[in-house]
């Protein structure tokens, strides 16, 4: 028989094994060293970046390493110093379309625009008050929590607001930046300076509703009403 005429050989097919589903193992998440949370032992906040954590610690220590070379004012963050330098510049390229007020930064214009709006989207969860800015809400919450993150660099006193610690430190440094333009007196606090300016007014600002008397200070008016009209 001719081998070319022989029937073709049949190949046996191997059976494939059925695939068995296996759950994938979750790989452990590796956190980059710079993204690890840094815990503040003073106020309990967790901060991601080490550079931000160092800046945050200066709030508690009172350290202000960045100084303006023109006015010697110091700052906690380098970004605040850069913004402050615009104070010494006369350029105000951003203006409000409603009232015409001009600003040096777009961020300041955006904050100002909320003054013309009645919207207050940030509510306090401890009282009925609402606020237009998150920064105002954060400051307000310190009234409820009694948090005092700003420390005096000269004594152990602490304050809720940065402006308060700045005014307090003038007690130690002797600085009196508020000068009266009508007499030689100088003042440490702006509130005291404004009260003093009323002494130079011809017409007192606070009048009594019960009699013709008027006073330069509201506290004197209240004393007068309690003493004579209550």
From TrEMBL:
Tell me the gene name.
Answer: LOC117668638
For whether the record's keyword set contains Metal-binding, the answer is: yes
- Species whose genome carries this gene: Pantherophis guttatus
- Keywords, alphabetical: Metal-binding, Nucleus, Repeat, Zinc, Zinc-finger
Residue intervals of the C2H2-type domain:
38-65, 66-93, 94-121, 122-149, 150-177, 178-205, 206-230
Q: Where is the composition biased (Basic residues)?
A: 10-27
Its organism's taxonomic lineage begins at:
Eukaryota, Metazoa, Chordata, Craniata, Vertebrata
Its subcellular locations are: Nucleus
> Where does the protein principally reside?
nucleus
Tell me the InterPro entries matching this sequence: Znf_C2H2_sf, Znf_C2H2_type
Q: Where is this region: Disordered?
A: 1-27
Q: Would you indicate the residue range of the signal peptide?
A: none
SUPFAM superfamilies linked: beta-beta-alpha zinc fingers
Protein name (database record): Oocyte zinc finger protein XlCOF19-like
């Amino acid at each position: 028989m001719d081998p070319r005429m022989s029937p073709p050989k049949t190949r046996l097919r191997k059976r494939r094994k059925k695939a068995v589903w296996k759950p994938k193992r979750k790989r452990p998440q590796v956190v980059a060293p710079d993204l690890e949370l840094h815990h503040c032992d003073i106020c309990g906040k967790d901060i991601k970046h080490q550079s931000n954590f160092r800046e945050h610690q200066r709030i508690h220590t009172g350290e202000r390493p960045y100084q303006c070379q023109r006015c010697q004012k110091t700052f906690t963050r380098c970004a605040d110093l850069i913004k402050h330098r615009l104070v010494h510049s006369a350029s105000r390229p951003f203006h409000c379309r409603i009232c015409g007020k001009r600003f040096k930064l777009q961020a300041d214009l955006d904050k100002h625009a909320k003054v013309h709006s009645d919207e207050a989207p940030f509510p306090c969860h401890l009282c009925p008050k609402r606020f237009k800015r998150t920064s105002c809400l954060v400051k307000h919450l310190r009234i409820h929590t009694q948090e005092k993150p700003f420390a005096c660099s000269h004594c152990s006193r602490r304050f809720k607001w940065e402006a308060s610690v700045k005014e307090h430190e003038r007690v130690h440094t002797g600085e009196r930046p508020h000068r009266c333009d009508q007499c030689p007196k100088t003042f440490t606090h702006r509130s005291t300076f404004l009260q003093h300016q009323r002494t130079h007014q011809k017409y007192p600002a606070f009048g009594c509703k019960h009699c013709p008397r008027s006073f330069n200070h509201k506290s004197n008016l209240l004393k007068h009403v309690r003493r004579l009209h209550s």
